[in-house]
């Protein structure tokens, strides 16, 4: 099908339909087990993302800069029109390259990480250097990196975040939910039960605002009750692996090092929920300091950057609601006193590499993580990088799938949104598939997984996977899992 072209108000020709690939060697069916996720397989979520979702995202970026042109002209003058036209043209070319499954191109501009990217691209086998034949992680990261490079190499818009309005709107529309969560979490006692509830709210926070809006409170269920909010967070959600006890016990162990590294995912309301959890940890001496690891550039639409952190705190500090304003001021104090800090920016987080190569490709970042008690990796993309975007057997141990990446104790919190998952009881994935064929991409299932940095990669029979039994009648009864360590909370 030929692309549909329209002429916008600036006289520029903009495609409104993606060109179809002329490739004939893409394969029917899902990505096979024991292989990297790839858009080569037409029944994979990777193929759907590359064929439909990414061209749509690029079109949205085009419309953002075109619609912002009057504001940009007011700020920079008429010369910014040239920047905008060049960016639009470059994104249109990138869409064409994607849909025709072209080879990845080297970076030749002002990108501070171009040497690392170009080395990585040069080392890829030639058959794995095109969008649909490459590992999905490589193709997707390359697309987002190329998109920002167009801004980065412009004269006026080198710091322009084409996604910031989406992150800010997500926080603004969640105002009522933020008020409820803020009031319910003031002065919570230091107990495992409260910590566990905050973890679950944090895990499901992308659904939480909608669920809370639809929930009918009884007289016995006040909105500012953390128990009720945790129940709301769990509505229609299933926690497949729950190592919360192990995470708590890790944080409760005595020792001089109480630093927690938090590898962030999204901005907006999710970052608000992150801060509620991290504030609780600092207030109750579960962490002496929390280091936030944010993205160096605009990334995956909603990922958190340093300007997003600053904007969020400033928005809360100046909010008209007294509770939210007080909360913003408290978080600002935690940051100024370095109880919560933004870690030095690393482009490794916006690179295409899985985390098990960090020790070779960014030894300084790896050393930073070794100096903490716990590293918490939040979200689906971080999980994919921990797993190497590889389809493991679903019952394979979490620690095995990390492939030697053990700078410190590790926790992964993630809602399942793609075919990469591990650490499930034997047979659970098959039963889930029979009952819900979308379970791997729906976001309705989640995991909180933990491994100790010194744990060996062997099975420990007879230990129970800590899964809530009431979730299981329609699925499968839980059997022995692979979590290790005491299943009783310390303290």
UniProtKB/TrEMBL annotation:
- Cofactor requirements of the protein: Mn(2+); Ni(2+)
Name the chemical reaction catalysed here.
beta-D-fructose 6-phosphate = dihydroxyacetone + D-glyceraldehyde 3-phosphate; L-glutamyl-[protein] + S-adenosyl-L-methionine = [protein]-L-glutamate 5-O-methyl ester + S-adenosyl-L-homocysteine; beta-D-fructose 1-phosphate + H2O = D-fructose + phosphate
Disordered: annotated span = 1-33, 471-491
Q: What is its EC number?
A: 2.1.1.-, 3.1.3.-
Would you identify the family this protein belongs to, as annotated?
A: Belongs to the damage-control phosphatase family. Sugar phosphate phosphatase III subfamily.
Function, in words:
Metal-dependent phosphatase that shows phosphatase activity against several substrates, including fructose-1-phosphate and fructose-6-phosphate. Its preference for fructose-1-phosphate, a strong glycating agent that causes DNA damage rather than a canonical yeast metabolite, suggests a damage-control function in hexose phosphate metabolism. Has also been shown to have O-methyltransferase activity that methylates glutamate residues of target proteins to form gamma-glutamyl methyl ester residues. Possibly methylates PCNA, suggesting it is involved in the DNA damage response.
PANTHER family referenced in this protein's UniProt entry, alphabetically: DAMAGE-CONTROL PHOSPHATASE ARMT1
State the name under which the record lists this protein: Sugar phosphate phosphatase
Taxonomic lineage of the native organism: Eukaryota, Metazoa, Ecdysozoa, Arthropoda, Hexapoda
């Amino acid at each position: 099908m030929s692309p549909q072209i329209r002429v916008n108000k600036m006289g520029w020709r903009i495609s409104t339909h993606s060109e179809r690939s002329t490739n004939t060697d893409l394969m029917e069916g899902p990505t096979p087990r024991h292989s990297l996720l790839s858009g080569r397989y037409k029944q994979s979520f990777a193929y759907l993302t590359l064929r439909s979702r990414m061209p749509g995202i690029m079109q949205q970026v085009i419309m953002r800069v075109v619609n912002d042109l009057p504001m940009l002209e007011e700020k920079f003058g008429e010369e910014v029109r040239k920047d905008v036209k060049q960016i639009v043209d470059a994104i249109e070319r990138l869409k064409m390259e994607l849909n025709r499954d072209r080879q990845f191109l080297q970076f030749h501009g002002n990108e501070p990480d171009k040497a690392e990217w170009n080395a990585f691209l040069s080392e890829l086998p030639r058959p794995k250097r095109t969008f649909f034949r490459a590992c999905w992680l490589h193709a997707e990261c390359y697309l987002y990196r190329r998109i920002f490079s167009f801004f980065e190499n412009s004269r006026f818009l080198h710091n322009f975040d084409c996604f910031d309005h989406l992150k800010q709107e997500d926080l603004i529309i969640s105002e009522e939910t933020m008020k409820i969560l803020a009031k319910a979490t003031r002065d919570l006692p230091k107990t495992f039960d409260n910590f566990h509830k905050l973890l679950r709210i944090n895990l499901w926070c992308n659904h939480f605002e909608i669920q809370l809006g639809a929930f009918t409170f009884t007289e016995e269920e006040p909105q500012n009750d953390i128990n009720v909010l945790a129940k709301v967070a769990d509505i229609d959600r299933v926690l497949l692996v729950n190592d919360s006890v192990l995470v708590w016990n890790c944080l409760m162990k005595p020792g001089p090092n109480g630093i927690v590294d938090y590898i962030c995912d999204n901005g907006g309301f999710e970052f608000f929920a992150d801060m509620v959890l991290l504030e609780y940890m600092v207030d109750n001496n579960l962490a002496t300091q929390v280091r936030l690891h944010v993205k160096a550039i605009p990334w995956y639409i909603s990922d958190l950057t340093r300007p997003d952190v600053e904007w969020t705190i400033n928005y809360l500090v100046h909010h008209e609601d007294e509770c939210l304003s007080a909360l913003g001021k408290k978080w600002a104090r935690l940051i100024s006193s370095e109880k919560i800090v933004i870690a030095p920016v690393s482009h490794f987080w916006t690179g295409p590499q899985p985390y098990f190569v960090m020790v070779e490709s960014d030894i300084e970042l790896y050393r930073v993580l070794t100096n903490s008690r716990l590293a918490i990796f939040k979200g689906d993309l971080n999980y994919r990088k921990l797993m190497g975007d590889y389809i493991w057997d679903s019952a394979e141990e979490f620690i095995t799938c990390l492939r030697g990446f053990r700078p410190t104790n590790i926790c992964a919190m993630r809602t399942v949104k793609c075919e990469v998952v591990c650490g499930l009881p034997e047979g659970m994935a098959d039963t889930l598939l029979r009952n819900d064929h979308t379970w791997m991409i729906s976001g309705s299932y989640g995991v909180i997984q933990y491994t100790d940095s010194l744990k060996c990669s062997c099975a420990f029979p007879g230990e129970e996977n800590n899964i809530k039994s009431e979730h299981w009648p329609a699925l499968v009864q839980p059997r022995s899992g692979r979590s290790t360590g005491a299943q009783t909370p310390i303290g």
